[in-house]
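the four lines:
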Amino acid sequence: MYNVYLRQFCKIRTRRPTFHSVLNKMAKSSFEYVKNYELHDTLLPNTWIVVRVDGKCFHKFSEDHNFEKPNDIRALNLMNYVAYSVFREFNDLLMAFGQSDEYSFVFKKQCLLYKRRASKLLTIINSKFSSSYVYYWDKYFPDVKLKYPPVFDGRVVLYPSEENLIDYMKWRQADVHINNLYNTTFWSLVLKGNLTPAEAEKRLCGTVSADKNEILFKEFNINYNNEPEIFKRGTLLLKKTVNVENSGKCMTVIVDVHDDMLKDKFWTSHANLLTVKSLKQNLIYNGPLTNIISEQINNKETS
Amino acid sequence: MYNVYLRQFCKIRTRRPTFHSVLNKMAKSSFEYVKNYELHDTLLPNTWIVVRVDGKCFHKFSEDHNFEKPNDIRALNLMNYVAYSVFREFNDLLMAFGQSDEYSFVFKKQCLLYKRRASKLLTIINSKFSSSYVYYWDKYFPDVKLKYPPVFDGRVVLYPSEENLIDYMKWRQADVHINNLYNTTFWSLVLKGNLTPAEAEKRLCGTVSADKNEILFKEFNINYNNEPEIFKRGTLLLKKTVNVENSGKCMTVIVDVHDDMLKDKFWTSHANLLTVKSLKQNLIYNGPLTNIISEQINNKETS
Amino acid sequence: MYNVYLRQFCKIRTRRPTFHSVLNKMAKSSFEYVKNYELHDTLLPNTWIVVRVDGKCFHKFSEDHNFEKPNDIRALNLMNYVAYSVFREFNDLLMAFGQSDEYSFVFKKQCLLYKRRASKLLTIINSKFSSSYVYYWDKYFPDVKLKYPPVFDGRVVLYPSEENLIDYMKWRQADVHINNLYNTTFWSLVLKGNLTPAEAEKRLCGTVSADKNEILFKEFNINYNNEPEIFKRGTLLLKKTVNVENSGKCMTVIVDVHDDMLKDKFWTSHANLLTVKSLKQNLIYNGPLTNIISEQINNKETS
Amino acid sequence: MYNVYLRQFCKIRTRRPTFHSVLNKMAKSSFEYVKNYELHDTLLPNTWIVVRVDGKCFHKFSEDHNFEKPNDIRALNLMNYVAYSVFREFNDLLMAFGQSDEYSFVFKKQCLLYKRRASKLLTIINSKFSSSYVYYWDKYFPDVKLKYPPVFDGRVVLYPSEENLIDYMKWRQADVHINNLYNTTFWSLVLKGNLTPAEAEKRLCGTVSADKNEILFKEFNINYNNEPEIFKRGTLLLKKTVNVENSGKCMTVIVDVHDDMLKDKFWTSHANLLTVKSLKQNLIYNGPLTNIISEQINNKETS
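prediction for all of em together
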């Protein structure tokens, strides 16, 4: 109402801001006003923040380093280890999903890290991923010299609802399937069928999934369903609780799994993951002891 | 995946819609709507784009790797070489300026790279810088093992006028001066004066430049003016023309200089740099043959 | 121009490109590049969009037009009628809530109006509100000359979850309560207690709700609970179904109510409102026939 | 540098922000956290801010109020007076340009009004324009009842260089010319040539300026060059100094002129306008005493 109470606001609001002059009093030099040109990029609160990094010109990079076709398990393991080394740094990360030369990192929706400044979150993930890729190269390619530093671009996307975030994860995993089926067939035609790449591309033009499955089975005796799950589904990182063998102790670790997120069953069994209370009720892990999991158990024991 | 399928993307980014329509034919395409949640982040045209990368917790990083105090010339040379390796990748970069654990990259104001999308420009510079820092570590620290991958954050700032951009460069260079004078005095007190860090900090509290100069001169016989220019002024990278010795030929190279940008003289003699026609009228370089410059001349000659 | 030429625009906004290509054929088209400086301001999908308009310097405006203190029912009725006239124009509006000189308009979260461009949604609501305030002034202030056109500022805020949106509505309604209790007490002290405004302000400084209730009751024999609900709770607009008397017919109308949104009961009984299917299951209205409701029933009958 | 100085930053930066909890301490209610969802929309400093308002569905509005074709001088005078009434409220406005149902307001590039918040600047101009259009309607349409409140949408655009801003102004004025020549010819064909609108549209399809000029001259004896300048060029508002007749005094007033901004001559003679010192060196006005100018002189004399 138009009264004393509001009058206070009115006065305050109409006071001309002189933030330049205020800033200058705190400045170490008269040039410091330029700092003011940095604009705010706070992300909307209470939404899931996804940072996706994506290899730049990795087709060339993979050729320059003789990656095996259609999938190089060393390259995938390196990507997963790099993502794991990023993941363990940030408590606010909920999960990460990778395939080929890309990785998506999902922050909890209540994340307040760096006041949710977009460029901070984006560059810190992106930088750590990029430097780690070089740092851990030798671990997975001990006999291959890294010819030049790779580049990953990055982007930030917000998802306001659980359904949106799940569909994002499904979208990326559907992408793995589509690409891998294509690539498996393409490289079978080239490497085993003796087609040129151009001929293989032409042969596959217009084909649907069933066609490619049939080519693989009839011509190359490959049952696509039996291909390794890391190739068909990509890799998901998330925190689960494991029973450490022979110790009777439980421990929360980052696990690398290849679950089928396109099935609703996955999301019902991981319902805790997306709720705010996710940290309290841990998910139980019963899968194989991967290198990534073993490393965490061993580190814990020796520390 | 690093293969024919992705090659198409890499070459022609604008053909993405084809890929989308492929996806749309599949049953799984119903998730693809999530791509629309990516918001536009186009930067205002006709403004200088500055991307600054900044080491995250480099105080700890420098201690963990026993950097010399107050300045470690190996670390500075590594930073400069990394920045040079980024600089040579982008024709749209005008100059770069670095000090300590930070580096600023300035794009021409008419730059249209990646349609001026903020996150693309930011992450590509940041990623290349981060991966190169690890890649070139051994070149400058042959006897020091890199203990973990470093992280750099990054930000984008726009400057609409020549005056603003010049003031930005002056701001960063003034910062070098202020920090280096402080650090030189602080570490003299600690390393030679046998004060504890806390005592040194207290001693310097409230002092102005003249006080610090006097402490250095009277107590440690150091004339601050004689300190190396790379310490006092940081390093500027920009393109200049050099006469290649004994060949009579001219060549455009990236030079690493330590000019005083706080003086107007610098900007009048480099007036071409900021105008749109900057590429046509080359700046002539008459300085020493640094390692960075020599490398370019030698590469050219052997290629 | 208000003619055939522009009619084409109005009908088919997407035909603008045609107009541009016409321009491009002209010599003058070389200026049109400036259109590209307009940056995208698309709002994140799947979030509730709130546009709030707020009177600028309405303290002075209310004095200049002798509004009654602490509440002028004519002014509140005008605000509500203006908001109603905005509300009926947009199918994508879910509800609106007003008090004093402000009104919040809530768009459905699936709203795609104007492709969710922030400035379009903001200005169209703000402009219609502002022009309507002048247009309908005489209806509520038949004997008071409007001395000058009022100004309302506006802002857009997004809310990603139902809880956030409900808390927004509660925040604004809690604000009504806080302000109205203060103002009712303040103006009692001034108008009936013969204090100067400064004395009244001082008297109320540091008091809590209970103190003000006591002042009202003991000194002025006012039971705050009996004050009109429009003063204590503001006005909420939303669509409900009414049974039209003596006709046996149902009709969906915009109702103006003063419900207590701070109570959870309100939100459970209006659960349909926030779900996507809200339009199908109508809320039933059993309240009094306000002028706003009557007008809609009468218009329907005569049309 | 990796030292004491930076250590201070490092500590500060890594301190987790708890701004929600801080805010809650200042809050009047526990719901106030929702205020935090308002995102910053500060505009880049040192750039010209253009706010353009544009009539929504004014083709219909002009028909509903029987505007004369192709131009209704009353409607244009109303638009100009409304724009003048907005202009006089803001010292930070440099100029305004209008035509048909649109008006552009240009803020000085050093403007700090409302801390350059986009939505504030946009809505305040847009609201004042909209409410004033209704308020002043009777002054220009004394015999025409305003049937409903009009709506104007609005947008904000930034221009970083003088050249960009000048090209913006030229773009809008070129638009007046193109539209007015088309409309003048179209309505001559319809009103005097007895073509139906569809026939007139067909007749003009594919014609260039010269064709339309010839139709006007040969068929309707209209020399387009002799058409009123307000129709051909739109209206520019800016501040100039006038000599008040018979008083020997000078006075700064807002003038409404129809200058040709497509000519460079205009910009050289108004060079002061775009420089920061524009306020000190006044532009001299020697044109006719328009109603808008007279009103200001008379108000001054009587005040």
